[in-house]
Amino acid sequence: MDEKRCYLAVDGGNSKTEYRLLNASGAVIAASRGGASNHETLPGGFDGAADVLICEIADLLEAQGCSLSHVADAVLGLAGADYDEEAIALQAALHARGLQRCFVCNDGYLGVMAGIETGVGICYSAGSGVTCAGMNAEGARAQFGGIGVLSGDTGGGFDIAAFVYRSVYQHLFFGKAYTTLKDAYFTLFDVRTPESFLASAARIQNEESARQLIGLFFTAMETGDELALRYAALAASHAADSVVAVSDALHLKPTVHVALSGSIMTAVAPPTFRRMIEYELFRRKGKYFSLRVNDRQPVDGAVRWVRMRNHLSETLT
């Protein structure tokens, strides 16, 4: 056995990218975290994303005394790879930079592999954005969402943060309904006047501020704020529409397992919001779906996938 042969598992997102290095036997021997790798938001598009990925992969390999030539296979689930043409373009860009054998797909599919024991079912992921992806027993895949405004995505972190600011803005300047989000926002960011609220827009366009606004939103929802509840209902409806669309496209039969993934679903949203999604699914299809919060990282799904592709141990670690 070539002691230098190794495998890569990658989960690339809008804010961070997780890397795992496996040895020739399939054991995880190293891990690292890098920055964003979505080609839609990085300068240079596909080439820019490939440059970031290869640079960070090379660092991980070098620390273990390996190089790209030792990588026998890699599975990369990447945000922004929303349809086949994008995945193929990213795969080609990686190949041109020395990653000779790899499989690229949308990062939503990693949630299926990580969160569903059989690898058959659906992952609804809500992080910075939202996406819904599924696989059936024959290996067919389907994905909806992930394109943002163009696909009507509702319920991702960026969209929630924008909703909070927009709701306060429309109350202050358009005379729209009062929302408790206004007082919470003013307190959190020490805003005292409508004019200073306008100026605060420049301060909140970063990841930490977005997290704080998401927290405000779910607190308002839990305490019965009408606007927050209305938005949560729209987000739950969008999630249900996406899940049903994937299920129908793959001809999945009940009970269909649905893993809820992404930072919103696993770390921020209260159980109330999950129950709203369950209710919307029940309204559409009855007792067709079984939901659970994914307790494994999506990168674990990439680890499992690369093991399966290469007939290695499939035990997740």
Keywords:
2 domains; 11 helices; single chain; globular; 317 residues; Nucleotidyltransferase, domain 5; alpha/beta
Biggest sheet overview: 5 strands, mixed
Unreliable spans are none
The whole-angstrom Rg is: 21 Å
CATH architect. name of the largest domain: 2-Layer Sandwich
Strand content: 15-25%
Q: Can you tell me the CATH topology of the largest domain? A: Nucleotidyltransferase, domain 5
What does this protein look like?
The chain has 317 residues and is an alpha/beta fold. The chain folds into two domains: 6-106, Nucleotidyltransferase, domain 5 (2-Layer Sandwich); 116-295, Nucleotidyltransferase, domain 5. The chain is built from eleven helices and ten strands. The chain has helices at 45-63, 84-96, 108-115, 157-174, 180-188, 194-199, 207-222, 226-250, 262-268, 271-285, 298-309, and strands at 6-12, 17-22, 28-34, 71-78, 103-106, 121-126, 130-135, 141-145, 256-261, 289-293. Strand 4, helix 2 (84-96) and strand 5 (103-106) form a beta-alpha-beta unit. The two termini are 22 Å apart. The strands form two sheets. It has a five-stranded mixed sheet with strand order 3-2-1-4-5, sandwiched between helices. Strands 8-7-6-9-10 form a five-stranded mixed sheet, sandwiched between helices. The radius of gyration is 21 Å and the shape is globular. Helix 4 (157-174) crosses helix 7, helix 5 runs antiparallel to helix 7 (207-222) and helix 8 packs across helix 10.
